[in-house]
Write a structure and sequence with these properties.
With 269 residues, this protein is mainly α.
Length: 269
């Protein structure tokens, strides 16, 4: 283990996994409790448009993808808020449009960049030091916003109508939650990839939900579970030379299935 830590790319991978786990644990819990998984999936796939735009313009991928994805998330939030019967259709349109925009821009980009696969399926072992600092900044923003509005998010998550009647800015918090989801998606791009990011956002919180009904405890347990999945997936990826994103999600899925099975047996007894 000590020999592995002497390698810079492994240290970067561990730090990236830790930072991504913190964001996924906190924001993923809000996504699951508020039943916004499909919305989060739309945001995640729309982010491909930002990746394509970055490659086409020759800009840094993560900052460019962040701006594009936050804008797309705001559009989805404003267009779908209060329109339950049409929300799925609006999200589906944005989902497809973002993917199509990214694919077209990639087709128009001269040459082929091999790094593209790491944004689709994740490459935790290839995270550069510069991205670590960017991820740390995003984590601080996420934690600051959630801590500042925690009571309002709690109220929104469990009774939106009551929250509105007590003066909680429900519309603002709804849009803010989508923005934070977009920020988290961009953070986790290189850990799990755009195709698999929704799993890392939802599996750890769903596992945590089996053991607690408290939102802050759910966030803490989801963060720990996500970190455990990242470390185990990273070890499998390193030893068997397989894609890190897929390894992490495979471990997460197995972990959730095991926890659900144990809870079911416990309930029957």
């Amino acid at each position: 283990m000590i020999d592995i830590l002497t390698m810079e790319f492994m240290r970067n991978a561990l730090l990236a996994g830790l930072l991504a786990s913190l964001a996924c644990g906190v924001i993923g819990s809000l996504v699951v409790v508020n039943r916004q998984v499909f919305m989060a999936g739309g945001v995640a796939h729309t982010a491909y448009g930002g990746v394509g735009l970055a490659f086409y313009l020759g800009l840094p991928v993560l900052p460019c993808a962040l701006g594009f994805t936050v804008l797309a998330a705001l559009i989805m939030a404003l267009a779908s808020f209060g329109r339950t019967e049409r929300a799925d259709g609006i999200i589906g349109i944005m989902w497809a449009a973002g993917m199509a925009f990214g694919i077209i821009l990639m087709d128009l980009t001269p040459g082929y960049n091999v790094d593209l696969m790491s944004y689709l399926f994740g490459s935790l072992l290839a995270v550069p030091a510069s991205d670590i600092w960017f991820m740390l900044l995003l984590d601080l923003i996420i934690l600051g916003v959630v801590l500042f509005w925690y009571k309002d998010f709690l109220s929104l998550s469990f009774d939106a109508e009551f929250a509105r009647s007590t003066g909680v800015p429900v519309r603002l918090l709804y849009a803010l939650m989508q923005v934070l989801t977009a920020v988290t998606v961009v953070m986790v791009i290189q850990v799990a990839g755009l195709i698999l990011v929704i799993a890392l956002l939802t599996i750890p919180p769903m596992l945590s939900e089996l053991f607690t009904n408290s939102l802050w405890k759910m966030m803490a347990l989801a963060t720990l579970a996500s970190l455990a999945f990242c470390l185990a997936g990273l070890a499998l990826s390193y030893h068997f030379d397989i894609t890190s994103g897929a390894s992490i999600i495979a471990v997460a899925t197995s972990g959730y299935a095991l926890a659900w099975g144990l809870q079911s047996l416990r309930g029957r007894r």
